[in-house]
Design a protein that fits this description.
Blueprint: H1 4-21, H2 26-49, H3 53-66, H4 81-92, H5 100-125, H6 140-156, H7 161-180, H8 186-206, E1 221-227, E2 232-238
Antiparallel strand pairs: 1-2
Length: about 240
């Protein structure tokens, strides 16, 4: 398979990080490098086994255990769980690193960059899926799930460890079901997870719109959830 595209994407991400590190203090730079270790290891590991007999045997054994007709569509919904957790925690009053606007901003920017990298790799490698079809590498569901999970982690890891890490449980389950459903190979899932984590962590350091927040410290903005038998709504109010 075409691993060069993966290496180029990794280089691009690290290049952005290094440019930012030049204007950061040494503590921030060391923290960035430490944060990048795990997702980089996932990306490199996935790239190494990409298209190998090892992952083909792994996929075959996995499908044999659940049956060749097995399919569960829960992997289409689990990636959204960390997003729901973020806003439910906000409504419940759980202390977070940033307010709702910045959380949404980080979610949007991280997912935009992650999706861009994921789709470039998909269409440049054109890897065949286990059950047929192209654009297997890397897994978009997995990269999306781990992006959301990493935002959740960054927002609540200082105040609620269980909440912060729970997103990764949903993301890992998403990747697992992508393989169980015969939609993706192991390398697709590993690289997708690595990209999602790495991009999101770097966005928290180098995001250019970091100080943009028209609602920051505003006491005039409020969100009120409303639930009845037929409706689930959120009302936005701004007091002039």
């Amino acid at each position: 398979m075409k691993i060069k595209q993966t290496a180029a994407s990794i280089f691009f991400i690290f290049h952005l990080a290094l440019l930012n590190a030049q204007s950061s203090d040494s503590i921030t730079t060391k923290r960035m490098i430490k944060t990048a270790i795990i997702p980089t290891a996932l990306i490199i590991s996935g790239s190494i086994i990409n298209g190998s007999q090892l992952e083909k045997d792994f996929q075959a054994n996995l499908r044999n255990k659940v049956g060749n007709t097995y399919e569960c569509r829960i992997d289409n919904y689990l990636p959204f769980a960390p997003i729901a957790e973020i806003y439910i925690a906000d409504i419940a009053g759980v202390k977070s690193k940033n307010n709702w606007f910045d959380q949404t901003k980080y979610l949007c920017i991280s997912n935009l960059i992650t999706s861009g990298i994921t789709h470039i790799l998909k269409y440049s490698t054109s890897k065949t899926r286990p059950k047929g079809g192209s654009n297997s590498f890397p897994s978009g569901h997995t990269s999306f799930a781990f992006t959301n999970a990493t935002v959740l982690f960054n927002e609540f890891n200082q105040t609620s460890k269980v909440l912060a890490y729970s997103g990764y449980a949903f993301a890992a389950t998403t990747g697992t079901f992508r393989m169980l459903n015969n939609k993706h190979w192991l390398s697709d899932v590993l690289v997708g997870a690595g990209i999602g984590i790495l991009v999101t962590d770097l966005v928290y350091y180098i995001e250019p719109l970091k100080n943009f927040n028209p609602f920051k410290n505003s006491k005039h903005v409020s969100f009120v959830p409303y639930i009845d038998d037929n409706n689930y709504e959120i009302y936005f109010a701004y007091r002039f």
